[in-house]
Amino acid sequence: MGQGVYFSQVIRRILPYLALPLAICSTSSYSQIDSPVTATTCPSFAFSAEPFKPKRAAVAEATPAQTITARLQPGLLKPQVESLIKQGFNVEYIDWRASPHYRWSTHFEFAAGDWQRALTKILQPYQLQLTLYANHMAVVAPTAQVQ
Prior knowledge:
3 helices, elongated
């Protein structure tokens, strides 16, 4: 241990004398005075590029919209809505954050222009909202709870 303490004391005394010459050498060899930089060495920026124009998706000719027909039976709402979500969207997992006790009371058949409208017709009276995610997950939660 004595040698380590002695070595650190020697380094503390010698370091200031070594640091000053090293700092002087490093700044003098890279001085801007030795090699002046002028604006002529930089290439000018070419402004000849055309402005960005987003490409519009090709619009297909108007075709009659596919009508979605759904049927609900008296019973629990959760399994029926989960079935419709999986049928209409590419969803693997559904996180049901609403009450599992909601019930549908009658036989009901309805038509809608697309799956979003069909599920809105079912979920809106219960104040529920469906959120779809890119990782094939969906969340059904009370409207005020969805973030």
